[in-house]
Amino acid sequence: MDHEYFMKQAINKAGQALATGDVPIGAVVVRDGEIIAAACNEKERCGDALRHAELLALERAAAAIGDWRLSDCTLYVTLEPCPMCAGAIINARVGALVYGAADEKAGACGSVCNLFAMPLNHAPAVTRGVRERECAELLERFFETLR
Amino acid sequence: MDHEYFMKQAINKAGQALATGDVPIGAVVVRDGEIIAAACNEKERCGDALRHAELLALERAAAAIGDWRLSDCTLYVTLEPCPMCAGAIINARVGALVYGAADEKAGACGSVCNLFAMPLNHAPAVTRGVRERECAELLERFFETLR
After folding, report:
1. N or C: which end of chain B has fewer CB within 10 A?
2. Residues of A in contact with B82 (CB under 8 A)
3. ipTM, 2 decimals?
């Protein structure tokens, strides 16, 4: 089980967002080789701009292990996290981040800015571009159907 | 009713965090001169690093008005928002932000960085330093008792 495998699970989760007209973004949190939390973007479903897949997955992971520190966890997400989610990764001390597609408009892990390069009190190890094409195509197809 | 009045309500809310050993930070969301949501930091209480006062207050505000867009709302918070909370303010399109004390270690509205000056898709109007001394003293007293 590797990055490709877990990103595939995040992609599967992303697909669930489509049922409620939400942008298809998915995330899973892995600890000791096991998925302990998963979520898709629920912004439209819940009418709450803060319900990004990453925030929900991290919240569920903390509940699952009973600790706010997620140092031994890896977050897999289909799209580069925005400032809110990158900040949540810092606050929860997430050990590692793996993402698929870059987000040129709102990405805070290297695209618009890189919060992990700032003098804040934590930065995860970052792996970019895992199943990048699949992650990006899911989004492209979604936005095409909106046009 | 003005900035001083609403910041006082955020300070009162901050005090509630002390009961659970949480860092005393409080927030209220105001719309049409009325407080529609309030929250204090619940990180330790809930064992979840994402339960900052701002995030909770914005979540409750969206639920209160039934819309994720908080363009006509003002968020009052005792401490300068961190990257996660500043990012949440952007995502929820919060119209205005008023904060008390600056956060030299994690503030993302001018101290460590300024997310609102980056080419993201929204930035609130910002007022800094309202009841700054009171907001800062609440935190100083809390950290002194920990020593």
Report:
1. C
2. 87, 90-91
3. 0.96
| Active site annotation includes A54 | yes
* Chain centre to alpha carbon of residue A54: 4
Q: Is B41 exposed, middle or buried (0-12, 13-18, 19+ CB in 10 A)?
A: buried
Are B100 and B79 in contact by the 8 Å Cβ rule? The answer is yes
pLDDT tens-place string over residues A108-124: 999 999 999 999 999 99
Catalytic residue among B4, B42, B54, B104: B54
The neighbouring-strand residues paired with B98 are: B76, B127
Closest CA to B81 of B59, B125, B114: B114
B28-45 pLDDT per residue, tens: 999 999 999 999 999 999
Contact A50 B92 (CB under 8 A): yes
To the nearest whole number, what is the mean pLDDT of chain B?
Answer: 97
Cβ atoms B109, B115 nearer than 8 A: yes
